[in-house]
Amino acid sequence: MLNPIFISFEGPEGAGKTSVLNTLIAELKMQFGNDLVSTREPGGNPISEAIREILQPEEDNGMDKRTEALLYAAARRQHLVENILPALAKNKLVISDRYVDSSLAYQGGGRDLGVDNIWQVNQFAIDGLLPDLTIYLDVPVELGLARVNENRQGKIDRLDKESLAFHQKVRKTYLKLQSEFSDRIKIVDATQPLDKVIDDTRTLINHILEEKS
Ligand SMILES: Nc1ncnc2c1ncn2[C@@H]1O[C@H](COP(=O)(O)OP(=O)(O)OP(=O)(O)O)[C@@H](O)[C@H]1O
Ligand SMILES: Cc1cn([C@H]2C[C@H](O)[C@@H](COP(=O)(O)O)O2)c(=O)[nH]c1=O
């Protein structure tokens, strides 16, 4: 790896991030070995994982929505300082399952806190560090939630249980961000068969790897 590269993955519930990342991280690990750092938000280190536990209990814990936004930003700050920046400083390829666009979409859009307000809070946290590429897996809310409810073996968390209207606002915000920042945020149609979603995503990753080499 000659140059540092930062890629984030985004999407509403059930878009297939986990499935796509499982395949592509395994492939990239073969290619890059220890030069690949695969991480997730909220999480990646003990402090951010502890915040994740507070943010994602199975039952509603009565959390105020601004508190929620601040905790995601705090977890992100620690993730940046402890995981992302040190890896980029060593010219690694960093792939994060979610980053700042999640807060813009979920807290800014879904929770109606406003994208501009969430940008402000997060600018303090990320200090200008945006991904080189953000891959947004897009799926209609009904299909994503149906996938989650029908297929997923893991726990259903607090946000999975939010209303349809909440998830519609999340997706609408993602689509708006994608059209506003189309140089950075690339959309993949996640209604396609999984193999095709993986192919399209791989193409985007190969493109940025070539561009940055
Ligand atoms: N393109 C696809 N076509 C059909 N089923 C899919 C597709 N992508 C994912 N799935 C299925 O949908 C379910 C949810 O997928 P996955 O856990 O990868 O999504 P996710 O985006 O990580 O979800 P969440 O963010 O809510 O955890 C899984 O059972 C997975 O097999
Ligand atoms: C980073 C971040 C995450 N969220 C929400 C979005 C999801 O519901 C969960 C993360 O779980 P997943 O397995 O990656 O789907 O957390 C959020 O609301 N705001 C954020 O900034």
UniProtKB/TrEMBL annotation:
GO biological process, one term: dTTP biosynthetic process
EC number: 2.7.4.9
Domain Thymidylate kinase-like: 9-198
InterPro entries: P-loop_NTPase (IPR027417), Thymidylate_kin-like_dom (IPR039430), Thymidylate_kin_CS (IPR018095), Thymidylate_kinase (IPR018094)
Binding site for ATP: G11, P12, E13, G14, A15, G16, K17, T18
Keywords assigned by UniProt, alphabetized: ATP-binding, Kinase, Nucleotide biosynthesis, Nucleotide-binding, Transferase
Any Gene Ontology CC annotation: cytosol
GO-annotated molecular function: ATP binding; dTMP kinase activity
Catalytic reactions on record: dTMP + ATP = dTDP + ADP
NCBIfam families per record: DTMP_kinase
Entry's family note: Belongs to the thymidylate kinase family.
Function statement: Phosphorylation of dTMP to form dTDP in both de novo and salvage pathways of dTTP synthesis.
Name the UniProt record assigns to this protein: Thymidylate kinase
